[in-house]
Amino acid sequence: MTDQAIEPRPGVTAAAEPRGGALLRLLRGAALIRESPVAMVGAGIVLFWLLAAILAPVLAPYDPNAQDFQAMGNPHPFSPGHILGTDHIGRDMLSRLLHGSATIFTVAPVAVLSAYFFGCLIGMLAGYYRGWVDTLISRVSDIILSFPVLILYIILITTVGPSAFNIVVAVTLAFAPGIGRIVRGLVLELRTNEYVAAAQIRGESGLYIMVVELLPNARGPLIVDACLRFGYTVIVIGVLGFLGLGLPPPNPDWGGMVKDTTPLMTIFPHMALLPSICLSSLVVGFNLMADGLREISLKD
Amino acid sequence: MAATQGNGAAADTPVLQIENLGISYFIRAGEIPAVPDFSLTVRRGESYGLVGESGCGKSTVAMAIMRYLGQAGRIVRGRILFEGRDMTSLSDEELRKIRGSKIAMVYQEPFSALNPCMTVGRQLMEVPIIHEGVSEKEASERALKVLRDVHMPDPRAVMERYPHQISGGQQQRVVIAMAMLTNPSLLLLDEPTTALDVTVEAAVLDLIAELRERYGTALLYISHNLGVIRKVCDRVGVMYSGELVEEGTIGELFTKPRHPYTFGLFNCIPTIGADKRARALTPIPGQVSLPHQRPKGCVFAPRCSYAMPGRCDVGPIPFEPLPDDSEHGVRCIRWNEIEQHAQTGAGRQDDGVASQPVLTVRDMSKFYEQRDSSLLSLLTGARKRYVKANEGVSFEALRARTVAIVGESGCGKSTFAKVLTGLETATAGTIDLDGENIAVVPVEKRKTELIRALQMVFQNPDGTLNPSHSVGSAIARVIKKFGIEKDPAKVRQRVAEMLDVVRLPPVFAQRKPRQLSGGQKQRIAVARAFAGKPTIVIADEPVSALDVSVQAAVINLLMEVQQQYDTTLLFISHDLGVVRYLSDHIVVMYLGMVMEQGPAAAIFEPPYHPYTEALLSAVPIADPTIKQQRIRLTGEMPSIIDPPRGCRFCTRCPRRIGEICDTTPPPMQEAATGHRIRCHIPLAELRTFPPVFTRAEPAAAAE
User: Fold this and answer.
1) What confidence score (pLDDT) does residue B341 get?
2) How many CA atoms, within 13 angstroms, populate the side-chain half-sphere of residue B8?
3) Which helix (H) or strand (E) element contains residue A270?
4) Any residues with CB less than 8 A from the CB of A105 and at least 6 apart, and which?
5) Do the strands B73-82 and B16-27 form a parallel or antiparallel pair, or are they unpaired?
6) Residue A124 near residue A185 (C-beta atoms within 8 A)
C-alpha cells in the first residue's frame, strides 16, 4: 500500500471540500436551481409573491379594508388613486391583493409543514416497522384518501368553523396520508441498505434510524413533492375562500375576493379576474419549480 | 468446423477485426475519450478473452462492436470489420439484421436480460421469427432444440414458464440458448457468470465451451476474472484504461506475463495454493486514471513500479509483438528489461501462542415459521411449515484468528450472521460469547458492552455508508455510541486515528461517501467496524464487489487491523481463493447445515465432503501450475422449505452411496482433530478420493 492508494478519487479536489454552516450549505443547494430554466421561472414567480407578501404593509397604498366611497362610482383600474381599481365596496384592489398574498404565505407554509410532519411520521412508522403498524396506518390512510377532498374540507370547516387554524388542520388531514404513502415507499426501499443494518447492529433506536439514517436520504423526492403540495394548498385556500369557508371577512383573501365579486363579472371583470390571476400565477410558479427540481434531481 | 457454417465470407477472414478504434462519450463537460486507440482480431471459431478492471473500457468495446453506444457515445476513429464488413458504416437497417443474428450477446445479469412478462418459450421463438421469418411451429421446434442443447432439464415445461420461475443458472442458460438460436458467428459475453454461484458458474462455463465446439462460434469473452478466462479462452487481451496493454495465448500470457500491469494482476489475486503465511498479496497502488486525465506516454506509468521518468512518460508507447512469438504482444518499452518478481513477499506469522476460544456456537438452529395457506394444508391441518435456515450449526472461533464460512447463496450464512448480531434470535442451541449465551438475546436487549463486541463489515460498498452523513460522523457515532470517548475533541482525534489505521488521511473525515471510490468506502466500513474495539468482526463478502487490485489492498488491511486489535474475524465468502488465503478455520455450509469444517489446510485436501470437493473443483483458477479435478454438480439446490430428509446434499451428490443418503441424516465424522465431515461415506473411503488440486509437473510449469 503506497501513498497513491490514499489519493482522493480523481476529479475530487481537496479545495472542493464542502464545508461551512447550515445556512451556507442551504444556499449552495439552492444555487443548483440555476441548472433548470423552468425552475428559475417558477422560483421567480414564487419569490415575487413572497416579496409582495412580506412588503405588503409597506407597498400597499391603502389599508386593505378601508373603503373609498368616492371610488365606488368608478371602480375601474387606472382610475385616479387606485391603479388596479377598487372592489364592489370601494376597497383598493392592489392593497387587498398584496395583503391577500400575505395571508396565503402565512397559512400555506404552516399547513404544508404540518402535513409533512405528520405525513413523515406515519410514513416512516409504517415503512420501518411494517407488520400491524403498517397495516393500521395504511388502512386508515386509505379511508381518508377515499373521501373526495373537497367534501372532507366542507364537512370539517362547516363543523368547526372557518379560521386559519382550521384550514391548517383540514389541509394536514387531507395531505398527510398521501405524504405518508410516499415516505413509506421511500423508507421501504431505503431500509434495505446496509447502513441501516449497520445502525441496527450498533443497537440504535428505531427513532434514531428513522430520523437520522433514513429521512435525510428521502429528501430529494420529498422536496419536489412539497413544492407541488404548496401549489395545491394555494388552490385549497382559494377554493375554501370561494366557498365562504376561508378566512372570515373582512380579511383580504384571494378566494373570498373572487366569491364576493363573481356576480359583477360582466360589468367589472377586474374585481374577480385579478385575484384569480394572482392565484393561478402562484400555483403555476410552484408547479414549474417542482418540475424544474425534478428535472435537476434526475440529472445526477 | 467453423468454415462449413457458410457465412458467406472467406474462411480465412477473421470474424472480427478492430483497427485503431477510438470511442468517445460526449457529455456537457466535453469529450471523454473512453477508448483512445484499440485494435483486436478474433479469428474464426476462436475464443478471445478480454480482461481488465472496471472502468477500463471492456464493455464499451463490446457495445461498440454491436454499434450500440447510446446517445452520448460515438466512434470517432478506426474501423470494426465484422466478417470483412465495416460495422461503422452500416445503416440502421443493416445493423438490425446483424444484431442478434450474426452477432449475439450475453450479459451479466440474466434476469434483466429476459422479459419478465413473456414466457421463456415465446422469447426464444421470437428470435427466428423476427430474423428468419420462420413459422410459429418451426420456431417452437427450434427453441426446444436449443434448450436441449444448453442441457435445460425438462425443456418442454421450461418453455411455458416465466423467467422468475426458473433459477439464475437456468436463466443464464436461456439467455445463452437465445444467443445461439440463430447460429451467430460471433458471441459477445460480458461477464456472463459473475452473478452466479461458483458451482453454477462452472457448469455454465462448461456449457459455453461445449457450444463453441459444436457450433464453431467465435467468442469474445469479457471478464475481470483471470481464472474464468483461463478456462474458456484460447487467446487473451489485457486491457487497461482503454488500451490493450498485453495480448497472447493463454499458455504464454499466464506463464510468462510481460506487462507490469498483467503481473500486477496475478500478484494480487489469492491462489488456492498459498495462504497468508506463505505469501503476501501485493495490491497495485493507485487507481485507474480517468479518461480525460490519462497521462502522456504509458497509461499505466503512474501506478507502475518500473516506470522510468523520461522514458515512460514522454510519448505514446507502441504495441509491439515479442520477437520470438508473434502471438504475444506488449505495450511496454521496458518489457525486456524487467522480470516478473517472484512472490517472495513475506507472509504473516502467527504469534505462536495457542489461542483461546472467544465464540462457541453449539447446535444453533434458526427456523422461520411460514404459514401455509394452501387448500391442502387446510384439510390436513398442517398449517405451519418451517424454513430451516440454519440447523445444528456448531463451531468455535479462536481469539485473533479467522474463521471462514463458505457456501453458495441460500446456504444460510447470512442468517447465521443475523442471529449472531442479534437481528434475529435462534430457535435452538447456544452461542457462547465470553461466557454469555447470546443466541436468544435480540439486539435491543443486549448490553452496550456486548453490542460493541460484535460488529460487522458489509458486502456492498455503495450501501454500507449513509450517503447523507460524512465519513467522520459515521465513525464518530460508533465511538460515542460505545462510550470509547465522549469529549468532542477527543472523538475527533479518535476518528483521525481510525482513518489512519485504514490508511486514509484525516481530511477524509469531511468527505461524503459519494466522493469516495469503492475501495475507499470499504476501508471506511472497516474503520467503522473496528472503531468500537470489537472482539469479533463479521465480514460478509467484504471484497466481492471490488476490483482485484483493490481487493488485495482491503484483504491486507483487514488482516493488519485484525492483528492490531486482536480481533476474531468471521469471514463469510463464496470466493475460495480469498478464503484459502485469509482463514485459519473453514466452515462449509450447504442448505443451512454445516457439511464440513476444519483447519483451512485440511479443507483443501482429502478427505473431503463430496460437496466441498465439488465446490473446490468449480473454482476458476488462474494459476497455470495447478491442475484441477473436474466434478460438476447436476440439478438445482432444493428448496429450503422442504429440504431432503436424509443428507441435505443427497439430491446433487455425485458420490451418493444409496438409499441411506435419502433417508437418514448423516453423522458428523471426525477425520482429524477439529476436522469434521458430515457424510455417510466411511472416512477410510473419503481418504481415498484423489485431491482436487495437484501441482503440474515442475518442468511443464517452468517452461
Assistant:
1) 57
2) 6
3) helix A269-299
4) A49, A50, A53, A54
5) antiparallel
6) no
Nearest to A203 by CA among B576, B155, B205, B449: B449
Interatomic CA distance for residues B303 and B240, integer angstroms: 12
* Nearest-by-Cβ selection for B455 from A19, A195, A201: A201
ipTM for the complex shown: 0.81
**pLDDT classification of A11: cutoffs 50, 70, 90:** very low
pTM (2 decimals)? 0.82
Rounded to the nearest angstrom, the minimum Cα separation between B11 and chain A is: 47
A67: β partners = A91
Name every chain A residue with its beta carbon within 8 A of the beta carbon of B302.
Answer: 4
CA distance B162 to B148: 18
pLDDT for residue A212 is more than 80 = yes
**Which residue ranges of chain B lie beneath pLDDT 50?**
1-9, 698-703
Instruction: Output the pLDDT for position B699.
Output: 44
Residue B108 vs residue A115, higher pLDDT: A115
Q: DSSP letter for A209, please.
A: I
Are B446 and B422 in contact by the 8 Å Cβ rule? The answer is yes
pLDDT at B276: 80
Q: How many helices (H) and strands (E) does chain B have?
A: 24, 26
> Which residues on A lie below 8 Å from B448 (Cβ)?
203
What is the residue-averaged pLDDT of chain A? 83
* pLDDT at residue B354, as a whole number: 67
| Beta carbons within 8 Å of A136's beta carbon, 6+ residues apart | none
| B92: amino acid identity, one letter | D
Chain centre to alpha carbon of residue B628: 19
CA distance A199 to chain B (A): 9
Strands of B427-535, DSSP E: 428-433, 436-437, 454-457
Q: Do B463 and A194 touch (CB under 8 A)?
A: yes
**What type of residue sits at position B407?**
G
Do B302 and A216 make contact, defined as CB atoms within 8 angstroms? no
Cα B366–chain centre separation: 28
Q: Which helix or strand (DSSP H or E) is residue B353 part of?
A: none
As a whole number of Å, the end-to-end CA separation of chain B is 32
How many CB atoms within 10 Å of residue A182? Answer: 17
Question: What does the block give as the cell for A132?
Answer: 400491524
pLDDT confidence of residue B631: 86
**pLDDT computed for residue B378 by the predictor:** 66
Give the residue-averaged pLDDT of A82-103.
83
Over its C-alpha atoms, chain A yields an Rg (Å, rounded) of 24
Annotate B267-286 with DSSP letters as a single string.
HHS--TT--TTT----PPPS
Q: Which residues contact B93 (CB under 8 A, 6 or more apart)?
A: none
Q: State the Cα torsion B495-B500-B504-B507 to the nearest 10°.
A: 50
Q: Is A81 left (phi over 0), alpha (psi -120 to 50) or beta?
A: left
Pairing state of beta strands B454-457 and B536-540?
A: parallel
Residue A193 to residue B463, Cβ atoms within 8 A: yes
Written as one letter, the residue type at B230 is R
> Which residue in the set A6, A193, A195 is minimally distant from B505, CB to CB?
A6
Spatial neighbors of A159 by CB under 8 A, at least 6 apart, are: none
Task: Choose among B158, B174, B237: nearest CA to B207.
Answer: B174
Chain A residues whose C-beta is within 8 A of a chain B C-beta are: 1-12, 14, 17-19, 192-195, 197-198, 200-204, 212-213, 216-217, 219
pLDDT, one tens digit per residue, over B186-201 is: 999 998 888 788 888 8
Q: DSSP secondary structure string, B42-82?
A: E-TT-EEEEE--TTSSHHHHHHHHTT--TTTEEEEEEEEEE
CB A262 within 8 A of CB A275: no
pLDDT tens-digit map of B542-574: 888 888 888 888 898 899 889 888 899 999 988
